[in-house]
Amino acid sequence: MLVLNYRVAVLAIATVLLSTPLNAAPFAYISNQLADSVSIIDLATNKVVNTIAVSGKPAGVAVSPNGDKVYVSTPEAHGFAVIDARKQQLLTVVKTSNGALGITVAPDGKRVYVADWFVNSVSVLDADSLEIIKTITVGQSPSGLVVSPDNRWLYVANRLDDSVSQIDTKTLTVKRTTTVGKHPFGLAIDSRGEHLYAVNVESDDVTVLETARMKPIATIKVGALPYSATLALNDSRLFVTNMDDGTVSVIDTDSLTNIGLIEVGEKPEGIGTHTDDRHIYVANWFDKNVSVLDGKTLQVKETIATARGSRAFGQFIAK
After folding, report:
1. Average pLDDT of 261-272?
2. 0.90 exceeded by the pTM?
3. In sequence order, which ranges of 182-225 are alpha helices (DSSP H)?
4. Which residues of 248-263 are buried (b: 16+ CB within 10 A; e: fewer)?
5. Whole-angstrom distance, CA of residue 67 vs CA of residue 64
6. Selecting from 2.130.10.10, 2.60.40.1970, 2.10.60.10, 2.40.290.10, what CATH number does the domain 27-315 have?
């Protein structure tokens, strides 16, 4: 009986090991627009473990919920690339329209949404077939995209219209469009889907929207030319990249006030939160690197060399 139990235990352990992805540790996928590549950072070691060639000036990034696939928008290739995250290699490329920029994946992993900067639309694709289900007309120059945690709503930052559109993911129609600050680009949403943060490049501020009514409840000044934002520490802090300042603004989401400023590299744009909900990764366009911040101490922990034009616009770390 003891021998049988031992064999059963060994078989169970082997099954677990074989079914566990070899790259189960979290990774960050940094699009390097000027280098036509994507750097893969192992977040356990903060080292670049691979660099994948992606043509078409890669910009936006989205990681599937299970971490299997990485979707990278390629504006000059008129679509996006799909990376097999397990094998860490380019899987396929997909054509959508002329100016693909913002990209995101639904929380259930079933759909991919791609914003087209030039034709003022969002393409909705089936994540399995990679076929376009529908194209939705939105405001001028749509950029940042984010889906609510319950998969009910898609939000789109319409940069040249100074607005954010709310799209019903069941009917794939625009329900509301709300005016925010000047030239919104990046978006972030809290884990309950109650508050949406629009980062406004030209007015140097962040508009906080209550999603239930799609009404602004606050406007918070940040640094010069803010681009993107991420939440951390149980949604208690919002971190915003300021491109012209080479800084990250820190906002307390309870008081909706700016409580700190962290110096990073030159021209920071993309920003994302580690799965530990504490450490923040910032892609510095001009410096060809990524700054790692401690969200509690508000200090730069280390800097990781990547490649030219590190952008990482979107959700580049698997949740």
Report:
1. 98
2. yes
3. none
4. bbbbebeeeebeeebe
5. 5
6. 2.130.10.10
